[in-house]
């Protein structure tokens, strides 16, 4: 019997386009002899729309966009989104794959809905997703877990608006230049700026606050950018490591998704002892957030050989040319098999949760 797989993509997020590319790639890779594919699209305005079952891969991203049915409010669609008709009977989808990046999808909101509906879903749960999305909370958890990081400060919008000069002065006294200003709750390098003086810092604050009410400012560091992929539930394992070599000033959105102006070295040229230390730290980060399914852990390696964890991504870029799948391909797991592995991990995790007792 084939697995009824619901693909959830799009989303009310600045990373909507990234999610669409991910969905396209997954659909093309799925084995139709093993899966019945049911697309569920979230528009940029937050409307949920279920498309018809796919019996063959679609040819372009636009084909994955569905117009909401006329006269049907989006909230009335949600209870029926995960039901399909099979031989005249209504059946619930076996597992949901949230291919969502950024807020309103990667941040625990959708995961909470799926938990309430008691549906198996691929990837991280509510806590890991929300903490992993919020860079401030994530770094606070990592600090508690004893993971070494760069120095950072953070502000909410009203704090900045009420005392702009004081926020800039705090950055300059505690972090200094160069520094990186980022929206706290966003990925794909959206809204990130590198600053080397006060003028650039002021512009960076304005840019980042367009995308979130909270921003984080991190100390710049001279180091190699090395990433590793983690896969599993209670007993996670790591891939080989890969190195990011930006040809621009830093690894921004354009370099990631548009002009390809970045070099990737897989596997990264590091010693075996360095790899083992990175592996250990990545798994500690994974467990500190109670992650499940998949994570990409990003590190800095200084010239002194010191590892600094930058962040983890609980729904990393997931096209065949994204770092997470490339790392697993080099480790020995091809893209279609990686998708199947994640679906199986989702079902395993869901089955384990069913042992929880809810009565007393």
* CATH architecture descriptor text of the largest domain: 2-Layer Sandwich
CATH superfamily of the largest domain: ATP-grasp fold, B domain
Q: What integer is the average pLDDT?
A: 91
Q: What percent of the residues sit in helical stretches (DSSP H or I)?
A: 25-40%
CATH fold-level topology of the largest domain: D-amino Acid Aminotransferase, Chain A, domain 1
Major sheet size, sense and barrel closure: 5 strands, antiparallel
Q: Count the E strands.
A: 15
Note the overall shape: globular
The number of helical runs is 12
Uncertain runs with pLDDT below 50, 5 residues or more? 255-259
Radius of gyration: 21 Å
Terminal-residue CA separation: 37 Å
Series of secondary-structure elements, N-terminal to C-terminal:
EHEEHEEEHHHEHHEEHEEEHEHEEHH
Question: How many domains make up the coordinates?
Answer: 3
Set out the fold topology.
Layout: E1 3-10, H1 16-29, E2 35-42, E3 48-50, H2 74-77, E4 83-86, E5 89-92, E6 95-99, H3 109-116, H4 126-133, H5 135-144, E7 152-156, H6 157-162, H7 164-174, E8 179-183, E9 193-195, H8 198-208, E10 214-219, E11 223-232, E12 237-246, H9 253-257, E13 262-265, H10 272-288, E14 293-302, E15 307-313, H11 323-331, H12 335-353
Parallel strand pairs: 1-2, 1-6
Antiparallel strand pairs: 2-3, 4-5, 7-10, 8-9, 8-10, 11-12, 11-14, 12-13, 14-15
């Amino acid at each position: 019997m084939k697995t009824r797989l619901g693909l959830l993509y799009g989303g009310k997020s600045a990373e909507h386009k990234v999610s669409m590319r991910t969905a396209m790639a997954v659909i093309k890779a799925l084995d139709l002899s093993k899966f019945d594919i049911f697309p569920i699209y979230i528009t940029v305005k937050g409307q949920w729309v279920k498309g018809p079952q796919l019996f063959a891969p679609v040819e372009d991203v636009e084909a994955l966009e569905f117009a909401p049915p006329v006269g049907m409010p989006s909230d009335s669609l949600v209870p029926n989104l995960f039901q399909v008709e099979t031989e005249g009977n209504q059946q619930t989808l076996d597992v949901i794959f949230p291919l969502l990046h950024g807020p309103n999808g990667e941040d625990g909101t959708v995961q909470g809905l799926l938990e309430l509906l008691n549906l198996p879903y691929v990837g991280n749960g509510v806590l890991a997703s929300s903490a992993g999305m919020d860079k401030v909370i994530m770094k606070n958890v990592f600090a508690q877990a004893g993971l070494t990081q760069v120095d950072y400060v953070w502000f909410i919008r009203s704090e900045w608006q009420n005392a702009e000069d004081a926020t800039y002065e705090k950055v300059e006294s505690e972090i200094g230049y160069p520094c990186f200003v980022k929206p706290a709750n966003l990925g794909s390098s959206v809204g990130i700026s590198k600053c080397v003086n006060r003028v650039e810092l002021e512009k960076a604050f304005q840019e980042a606050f367009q995308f979130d009410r909270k921003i984080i400012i991190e100390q710049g560091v001279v180091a190699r950018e090395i990433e590793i992929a983690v896969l599993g539930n209670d007993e996670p394992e790591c891939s080989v490591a890969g190195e990011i070599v930006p040809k621009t000033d830093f690894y921004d959105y354009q370099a990631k998704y548009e002009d390809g102006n970045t070099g990737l070295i897989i596997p990264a040229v590091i010693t075996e002892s360095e790899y083992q230390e990175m592996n250990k730290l990545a798994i500690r980060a994974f467990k500190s957030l109670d992650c499940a399914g998949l994570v990409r852990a990003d590190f800095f390696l200084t010239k002194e050989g010191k590892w600094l964890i930058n962040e983890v991504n609980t729904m990393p870029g997931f096209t065949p040319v994204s770092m997470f799948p490339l790392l697993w391909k080099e480790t020995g797991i091809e893209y279609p098999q990686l998708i199947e592995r994640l679906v199986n991990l989702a079902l395993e995790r869901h089955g384990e949760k069913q042992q929880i007792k809810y009565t007393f």
